[in-house]
Design a protein that fits this description.
Distance between the termini: 30 Å
Radius of gyration: 18 Å
Strand order of the largest sheet: 1-3-2
Largest sheet: 3 strands, antiparallel
Length: 146
């Protein structure tokens, strides 16, 4: 069982963070998943739906449902791709940008509260190790797709 401690710990930390963020957002108009989409579009507006799926790291059916909901909430809009008229690009509306700003503030406060117990060096080491772990997992996932 010792072999699975890292996976279990990562899963536990992720779940607890999502629960806490969900509680912080329970009175908001968007879900955590919808906020993830909105934040992803802040710096990547005007992208295709399949690219957005990859960016948020969810499957296409989740992306389709979430896009439909965000369209209904007037957070995003679709526009024709000038290079390929068959393709629609997705961008944020002004309301979408407002939600992004709101969620960035929630995340900023959450992270500050979470990290206040760590020294600056511990924070730097933690970020370095998580980025490294993420890079390793990305490489592993690319290998397993071949």
């Amino acid at each position: 069982m010792e072999d699975y401690q890292l996976s279990k710990l990562i899963n536990t930390v992720n779940n607890k963070a999502l629960i806490h963020l969900s509680n912080l957002c329970k009175d908001k108009d968007l879900s955590i998943l919808e906020y993830r989409f909105v934040l992803s579009l802040v710096n990547n507006g005007g992208i295709r739906q399949d690219k957005l799926s990859n960016l948020v790291d969810v499957n296409k059916s989740v992306t389709t449902r979430t896009i439909t909901t965000l369209l209904e909430k007037d957070c995003i809009y679709r526009e024709d791709d000038l290079k390929d008229g068959r393709v629609k690009k997705i961008s944020l509306t002004n309301l979408g940008y407002e939600y992004a700003k709101e969620f960035e503030e929630i995340l900023f406060n959450f992270e500050n509260r979470l990290l206040e117990s760590f020294s600056e060096l511990e924070q730097e080491n933690m970020l370095y190790n998580f980025r490294r772990l993420n890079s390793i997992l990305n490489k592993m996932n690319n290998i397993s797709k071949k």
